[in-house]
Amino acid sequence: MARLYEYQGKQLLKGAKVPIPQGEVVTTPQEVRKIAEKIGKPVAIKSQVWAGGRGKAGGIKFANNPDDAEKVAKDLFGMEIKNLKVEKALVEEKLNVDKEYYVGVIIDASREVRAPVVMFSTEGGMDIESVPAEKIAQINVDVLRGFRLYDALNLCVKLKVPTKVLPSIAQAIMGLYQTFKGYNCRTAEINPLIQTKEGKIIAGDCRMAIDDSSVFRHPELGIDVAREAPTPPTEFDKIAWWIEEGDLRGTCYIAQMAPDKKGLGYVGYHGIGGGGAILGVDALNRQGLKIANYADTSGNPTAAKVYRAAKVIISQPDIEGYMLGGFIVANQEQWHHAHGVVKALREELPKRPGFPCVLLLCGNKEKESMEILKEGTADLQNPIEIYGSDKVYETEFLAKRMRALIDEYRKKRGIKA
To answer: pTM for this structure?
Structure first.
């Protein structure tokens, strides 16, 4: 899922006629001051990072005047919240809170439901999982019938929402669902949905995640990489996504795990099949090695797609080896992997004398794939070890071979571990 920042989600809600606080997103303390002057009342300065618990981590500040707003913003920008650097902030009017509610829409993929579920609670500002069941109302949405305003009203009535705010809250619920549907979300929530002491209903905070496959429909959102990740995409992530974005034949997931490599022992990791590939990662870790990236090329990708993936992985600076971790007897035609990997190795390995590779490839056309790998790398001077299905379960053995080759690679370069 591709997550949105709070300020992005609020703009979508505004388009669905859900009231949001007055405010703007900024990138400097000086801009914070200008927006605070424009608002002309006490403000909240909220860090824009993909992390929960911002308030407890010091990522939300309050100020009574523009001078104070600029001052506290200087401490906010550049700080890290759960390893995420604060580079943007949302400056909003400080709300006079009387009551907090929760509204959420998720996809329930269970066999019994397989539909969007709209949830409403009279207890907002906390995890919905910890709210007593009697304070939660929900409805499974029939996608053919849709979700109507009176469905939202019924949710409110079920929890005895006061009549004076019932229409406004129901409209906010309806607006969230319309946003969820219109932007192909996997999840969307307003938490808290605030009732002010003046009787207004306003979206205090929101979280939204767009389905990866629908990101191309919404270029206005400016999503660079349609992947769920705890951090903003790196340049490596953007290059890796480019491989997948224009060619949906098979999977090609590549994510950078160590943007700032510290020390030795990093391996370019090229997995096949998610679960089996993770076993290979664990085995490498037990040998004191770390993965610079995680990758998965499965679902019968083309040789061209595998080639691009392997080339991106091997091209990473400061790695000491490349492992093709096909820890699964795949039903895809593995000679596509063999052709793609060979082409990448022949282009990249001459640039790295002595750089070692361990290749495990199993599944359909395995015999032919072994021949392609062996013949295609026979004249390369680098240490390359090739294994088939007889070693598919021997993760420890393969990890030890990777470690042994890396140790030899270090000796030749005069590097002491």
So the answer is: 0.77
